[in-house]
Amino acid sequence: MRTPGTILVVDDDESLRSVIEYSLRERGHTVVAVGSGTEALQCVPEGFDLVITDVLIGDVSGMDVLAETKARSPETAVIVITAYGAIEDAVRAMKLGALDYLTKPFDLEALALVVEKALWYRALAAENLRLRGELEERFSFENIIGVSAKMQAVFATLRTVAGSDATVLITGETGTGKELVARALHHNSARRDGPFVAVNCAAIPETLLESELFGYFKGAFTGAVQSKKGKFDVANGGTLFLDEVAELGGALQAKFLRALQEREIEPLGSTAPRRVDVRVVAATNRDLHNAMNAGTFRSDLFYRLAVVPIALPPLRERQEDVPLLVTHFLRKHSKGREIGIAPEALALLRAFQWPGNVRELENVCERIVLFLSGDRVTAADVPDAVKARSSNASAFSVQLPAEGISLDEVEKAVIVQALERSKWNRAQAARFLRVPRHILLYRMQKFGLADARNDPENTSE
Ligand SMILES: Nc1ncnc2c1ncn2[C@@H]1O[C@H](COP(=O)(O)OP(=O)(O)OP(=O)(O)O)[C@@H](O)[C@H]1O
Ligand SMILES: [Mg+2]
């Protein structure tokens, strides 16, 4: 099958040039033929599928044309024509990235064959690039990566809300990518040219947080020798990222709620509120429902923040994301060097529970690259701590107290936790504990748990 292409022919030998040009045109290709390296360099940026260049072309050598083409348009294929016996030229050309070479004299059949091969290869490379682009687009949002259904759902939400001004509440364990998501939201919004201001509520003492957020006027309190803008003000026209929002104290929660509702702030010592145009994105690794039940977090503020809730799942609940993340981090930390990974090594990384989630996985990948001698990660390169926990089929570990413990009590506690996790759905809890349902029911009876809650499913047995 012939693929017509756009070809640049560079040769100072006019008769050979015409023969090549004619023969390629006859086969349906679009051809530009030039007689010098200088002219060739002017044409190179125009994006040819293929460049065929003689090595000896006077002013600028064919090697320079090759190098320049590869630098400007790496996907363009290059074929070099070398003099009979100049094998070192051919070797050098291949090292510089030529796809193939022809030795003079060659017949037109040989030329046609090499050209077909080069164009086919070029089409394949383009297809590959397109597929890779599609893959990355499907399985990422900005630089957040995930192939799992759970992350696909997160991306779908992000695509929908990024463009709006809706307040977003991001929840998830440490290292699940909350800040990454907040930044992605900003960069995909109409506010992308405005500021992105992050405030970590856990890092700033409660007493300073109010002035940090809302600012103050000179003389508002002892020590306020000059006015200071609050982060709300600094973020005007952009996004305010309120990290660890569960740490806001009661008084500040009220003030913050008012700012969210009225889109107005009142710096300390001011006499009139002022309008701010800020989109708020908040994040926490705490369970705000628990905090609300305990009375430490206002529910009215919660609902104001959670207009769009985004829950980032822990990595252990989306192990299928591990391979792509590993590829991404290996590439990121090897600075372009292609690094492969053996299936056994990947299996170990997949099986690990990752308490520090994606951040921990990234750190481990960075460390692996740092200590790697070759260009392939094997099981031996995986840190012992990861290996130990992965190879042990059960990642469950308990610290036994010195005075001993009742096995019955441990069993009961585990069963209660499984039931709570499944909202007292016994079939689900049994699956979770990997025991048949009648065994679970038997043990529940033994521990007096059978009547603890009504299970809608219970009637079926
Ligand atoms: N899905 C992902 N794809 C690529 N990188 C990720 C992903 N999730 C997290 N990361 C990377 O992991 C690291 C931790 O992410 P981030 O700081 O956003 O987590 P976090 O949820 O804010 O954690 P913490 O609660 O500890 O503040 C960052 O380097 C981030 O780039
Ligand atoms: Mg964070």
Overview of the molecule:
- By secondary structure, this protein is an alpha/beta fold.
- 46% of the residues lie in helices and 14% in strands.
- The protein has 19 helices and 18 strands.
- The strands form 6 sheets. The chain has a 5-stranded parallel sheet with strand order 2-1-3-4-5, sandwiched between helices. Strands 9-12-15-8-16 form a 5-stranded parallel sheet.
- β6 (140-141) and β7 form a beta hairpin.
- α10 (250-262) packs across α12 (299-305) and α13 packs across α15.
- It is extended and about 95 Å long.
- The protein starts with 5 loop residues before the first strand and ends in a 15-residue tail after the last helix.
- The chain binds adenosine-5'-triphosphate (ATP) and magnesium ion.
- Magnesium ion (MG) is lined by residues 178-179, 243.
Layout of helices and strands:
Layout: E1 6-10, H1 14-26, E2 30-34, H2 37-43, E3 50-54, H3 62-72, E4 77-82, H4 87-95, E5 100-103, H5 108-138, E6 140-141, E7 144-145, H6 149-161, E8 168-171, H7 178-187, E9 196-200, H8 206-214, E10 215-216, E11 228-229, H9 231-234, E12 239-243, H10 250-262, E13 264-265, E14 274-275, E15 279-284, H11 288-293, H12 299-305, E16 308-311, H13 322-333, E17 340-341, H14 343-351, H15 357-371, E18 376-377, H16 384-391, H17 407-421, H18 426-433, H19 437-446
Parallel strand pairs: 1-2, 1-3, 3-4, 4-5, 8-15, 8-16, 9-12, 12-15, 17-18
Antiparallel strand pairs: 6-7, 10-11, 13-14
Helix pairs in contact: 10-12, 13-15, 14-16, 17-18, 18-19
Residues 143-146, 172, 174-180, 285, 325, 358-359, 362 line the site of adenosine-5'-triphosphate (ATP).
